[in-house]
Amino acid sequence: MTTAEPTTDIHDGVSRTITEDIPAHFTVKIEGFSLLSKASIERYETAEFEAGGYKWKLSLYPNGNKTKNEKDHLSLYLAIADTKTIPHGWEVNVIFRLCLLDQIRDNYLMVQDSRERGRRFHGMKIEWGFDQFISLKSFMDASNGYLIGDTCVFGAEVFVCKERSTGKGECLTMIKDTIATKHIWRIENFSKLDKECHDSKIFIIGDQQWKVQLYPKGKGSGMGNCLSLYLALADPNTLPPGRRFYVEFVLRLMDQLHNKHVYGKASQWFSTSSQEHGWSRFILLSQLYIGFLMKDICIVEVEINVIGTVITLP
């Protein structure tokens, strides 16, 4: 008994072959296809299957992929599944073939990219396939054997030909519609503060612990004649490597007599290597006595708005 040689047609970079070989890695049988195409299911995803050491799944658009403006063809794609378990930076070059059974002639229409080096799957591109896998007209034509008794069978072969790691990465997430949060620090017995730096109690804003640092006799260029004021991460050593926060903040020294508050406003990145930001010359010490220090009490208000975070990708 002899086996017929596969016949191949290549058009627009897509190879279509008729073969008697059964798909090596996965098949899915769909009964009642017309009900699927009439339902509100734009995309059907199969269960996961394993090939080449990775998990995959098929994504079928029975009426065409509308996001690609496709309506006259059935669309079929291969997607890498469970991407959370794959380290960031990994790339997988894959030669894959997607198949459709001709139930009359007992052979398969095998569709693949004509690129010999295959397609590159990675964190930013987890799916490849064919917007125009087969025209709906050809698929529905019973004489072609693809849809018989409202039943069809699709399949896949996946061959990993190269994989590599591209190194480190990070993800910046900007936070939409954030709301600034305020915290008040009331400092009593100001004249008796004897440490170089005094910390407020720790408070939590934006899922992060913060504190305000006050230098009653100044710091750096403000030493001896200014009050210095800073916003700081309360426990930066607990941050995961690479974690950063982009923060809009206001430090305000309250004028308890005239309501003419003194404030500093800034936008800064906070991280383990940049734990505090503020002003060494926030206010002259001589100015404290015109309403900012009353009954040996001064009041600091901090306003924090975390508008962006960066994490290191695994």
Could you characterize what this model shows?
The protein has helices at residues 33-38, 136-140, and strands at residues 7-11, 14-19, 26-31, 44-45, 49-51, 54-61, 73-80, 90-102, 107-113, 119-121, 127-135, 151-165, 169-174, 181-187, 198-199, 203-205, 208-215, 226-233, 244-253, 262-270, 276-284, 298-313. By secondary structure, the chain is mostly beta strands. It has two domains: 7-166, Apoptosis, Tumor Necrosis Factor Receptor Associated Protein 2, Chain A (Sandwich), CATH 2.60.210.10; 171-313, Apoptosis, Tumor Necrosis Factor Receptor Associated Protein 2, Chain A (Sandwich), CATH 2.60.210. The chain starts with 6 loop residues before the first strand and ends with a strand. 24% of the residues are buried.
Structurally, the number of domains stands at: 2
Number of strand segments: 22
CATH class of the largest domain: Mainly Beta
Tell me the series of helices and strands, N- to C-terminal: EEEHEEEEEEEEHEEEEEEEEEEE
Which percent band covers the strand fraction? over 45%
Let me know the largest β-sheet: 7 strands, antiparallel
Question: In percent, how helical is the residue content?
Answer: under 10%
- The CATH topology of the largest domain is Apoptosis, Tumor Necrosis Factor Receptor Associated Protein 2, Chain A
Quickly give the CATH architecture of the largest domain: Sandwich
Report the mean per-residue pLDDT as an integer.
89
Question: Stretches where pLDDT falls below 50 for ≥5 residues?
Answer: 1-6
Number of helices: 2
Structural class: mainly beta
